[in-house]
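Hello forum,

I keep getting stuck at the same step: I have a sequence, I want structure tokens, and every attempt I make locally crashes halfway through. Rather than fight my setup again tonight, could one of you with a working pipeline run this one for me? It's a single chain of 90 residues.
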Amino acid sequence: MRLSDQQLIGLPVVTVSGDPIGKVVGFELDIDQHTMATYLVSAAPLVTRLVGRNVSTLHISPSQVVGFDAEQMTVMDNAVHSVAPNTAAI
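Reply #2:
Ran it on my machine without issues. Output:
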């Protein structure tokens, strides 16, 4: 299955356990490897509470994506780790 960028942007992101993480707001490509480098996801309120501060964007590695379809992206149940003042990686 293939998704266009229009289909990917806005896609809800949840954990395997069903916890909402946010929505896809963008992505970064590795142009040298011709692969997806990172999914950029807006942080849901649950994520802000887990991190303990206001986090607006998460950087999700493709290796943490369990699967996705036209309805949602599912990611591993991982702790959210802060990596910058306004971003976090899970």
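The domain at 3-73 is CATH 2.30.30.240 (SH3 type barrels.). If your local run keeps crashing, start a new thread with the error log.
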